[in-house]
Specification:
The protein has 349 residues and is an alpha+beta fold. Helices cover 44% and strands 23% of the residues. Strand 2 and strand 3 form a beta hairpin.
């Protein structure tokens, strides 16, 4: 007769964290939906609503699909909440096992791999269980370890890492290619705003940079900003000393920003609406007597920054690809037979 030996227990702290995560994502989804209801002219505003709702659903599904482990004298049962799934494995089917230690910033855990006589591999993770080590000891009692599987999993993990590094290298090279494109602005790409300053120009300091903030009469909801790159080519001290509250200033901004935020001829994207809506970048600044920042200098400093981006991302991308090439040439993570063996043995959680 089959008798129950041990039942796994879930970690309460993990459960609380997951529930709080669901509530947090639901709150964000409702918050963005309320903003969408205020102005639903742009369907793109629904994107964060859908994303946060999907995050909440994913965490909820993870909780209810996480199985409780029942170990009997002759079998193992994995049962999820609400009967989502139930799997049963006879202890006599288990040929051998393997434990691999894993590290994460939220705590160390281990993966238990059970190899069945059908060559199927069952994977159990200790992360969400309080008594996993006791459960493991009961399951693996009098069963041998599978050291060959360890080598195969190590090589498979190395292959995954090589694929990840290859994709990352290609991504870096793609980013470098985007920096290579010359995005310099012309007179046709900008619009000019002439207005009186509603307050003195402020110098805003950051940890490693600084920027200038200008506020204009009739445009008080916006901060016209000379950013950390452009300020290097700006006579910003003269600008702050020469022009005070009530003085007339001419600011040039990108036409795209003008049409979205000032004239409102072009609908704003979700990024424009909810991320730094109040900020408008200045590409040229002048008074009737002096030009403190010119469009050509703005283009020059941004192009110099592009060269740094090309060098940084291009170099790292090429280095990653070269590293992967020599690693695969030296290590050969999988032979043809090992690949065939691995593909026929799916790792199931």
């Amino acid at each position: 007769m089959s008798t129950l030996k041990i039942t796994s227990k879930f970690k309460i702290a993990n459960r609380i964290f997951y529930v709080l995560g669901i509530l947090f994502f639901c709150f964000l989804s409702i918050l963005f939906f309320s903003k969408y209801k205020e102005n639903h002219s742009n369907a793109g505003n629904l994107i964060p609503v859908i994303l946060f709702a999907l995050f909440a659903i994913f965490v909820f599904y993870y909780i209810i699909s996480l199985p409780r482990i029942y170990v009997y004298s002759d079998k193992i049962e994995l049962k999820s909440h609400f009967g989502l799934f139930k799997r049963t494995y006879l202890l006599s089917e288990i040929e051998n096992w393997l434990v691999r230690q894993k590290e994460s910033k939220y705590g160390n855990y281990e993966n238990l791999y059970l190899t069945l006589n059908s060559k199927k591999i069952v994977k159990l993770k200790s992360y969400d269980y309080d008594d996993f080590y006791e459960v493991r000891s009961v399951i693996t009692r009098n069963k041998p370890q599978n050291k060959i599987l360890k080598d195969q999993l190590d090589k498979k993990e190395s292959l995954r890492l090589a694929i990840f590094c290859t994709l990352l290298g290609l991504l870096f090279i793609y980013i470098a290619a985007q920096f290579y494109k010359d995005a310099s602005l012309t007179k046709n790409d900008v619009s000019i705003i002439k207005a009186k300053l509603s307050d003195d120009i402020k110098l805003k300091r950051h940890k490693r940079s600084k920027s200038l903030i200008c506020t204009l009469e009739n445009f008080n909801e916006f901060e016209f900003t000379i950013g950390s790159l452009a300020i290097k080519e700006t006579y910003y001290r003269d600008l702050m000393n020469d022009l005070k509250k009530g003085n007339l200033i001419s600011l040039t901004i990108e036409k795209d920003q003008y049409q979205k935020k000032i004239s409102k001829k072009t609908p704003m994207s979700i990024l424009d609406k909810y991320f730094h809506y109040e900020k408008i970048d200045v590409v040229e600044a002048e008074s009737k007597d002096f030009k403190y920042l010119s469009l050509s200098d703005y283009n020059k400093v941004n192009r110099q920054n592009d060269y740094w981006g090309i060098g940084f991302f291009g170099l790292f991308g090429v280095c990653l690809l070269i590293g992967v090439f020599f690693y695969l040439k030296k290590e050969k993570p999988f032979s043809k037979n090992q690949l065939l063996y691995t593909s026929s043995n799916q790792l199931k959680k």
